[in-house]
Design brief:
This protein has one domain: Rossmann fold, CATH 3.40.50.10420. With 194 residues, the chain is of the alpha/beta class. It contains four helices and eleven strands; from the N terminus they run H-H-E-H-E-E-E-E-E-E-E-H-E-E-E. It is globular, with a radius of gyration of 16 Å.
Length: 194
């Protein structure tokens, strides 16, 4: 199973890297428009998103729209590689390179726990039709959102996978602990998965 997942990761990362820069920007903007129509993307709401890494779909259009609308933006910061721990800090001011070379806020204001977000834009390498997510393999989002597995009613934030259509696959060879997203936003629009 781990060999299949590793091969799938390599293939899907190569797919998104192969997009020409102009096409990458165009598709990113189309996917962002799908997210902007969500009720959870409005003034005063807490929205977690990420700063792109390794040719991930770029949320720059969403960040700009969030600032115009008064949406409070938070980004993940790896605080422990050993314990797979993420904290979500407000995005404001400049950024610097953090763990794995991923940009993080230069000055880290106090974090907000994932359960208190209204919406989380989740990066992924691949996703299947049931919303099972294939990440980079570190388990950071799986750990940060593990509380969702024990909930029956209130599940916390709406989880939206943010990806290109080329990252959709029939199976991600999911394990029981692998995170599921509630919806997927791509250049084709928003697809509710649960």
């Amino acid at each position: 199973m781990s060999t299949q997942k590793a091969a799938l990761r390599l293939n899907l990362r190569a797919r998104r890297r192969s997009l020409p820069a102009a096409e990458h920007r165009r598709r990113s903007a189309l996917a962002a428009k799908a997210v902007m129509r969500l009720a959870a993307f409005r003034s005063g709401r807490r929205v977690a998103m990420y700063l792109p890494f390794d040719a991930e779909i770029d949320p720059a259009v969403l960040i700009a729209a969030a600032r115009r609308r008064g949406v409070r933006i938070y980004v993940p910061v790896v605080v422990s590689r050993r314990h797979h721990t993420l904290r979500f800090h407000p995005l404001g001011g400049g950024t610097r390179r953090g763990t794995f070379g991923i940009h993080v806020p230069r000055r880290a204001a106090p974090p907000v726990a994932p359960r208190w977000m209204n919406l989380m834009l989740v990066p992924l390498v691949g996703v299947d039709p049931q919303g099972r997510r294939l990440g980079f393999g570190g388990g950071f989002y799986d750990h940060a959102l593990a509380f969702r597995r024990s909930r029956r009613s209130w599940m916390g934030p709406l989880l939206v996978g943010f990806a290109f259509d080329c990252q959709r696959v029939p199976s991600v060879h999911a394990q029981p602990w692998d995170l599921r997203v509630d919806a997927l936003a791509t250049e084709s629009g928003l697809l509710r998965l649960l």
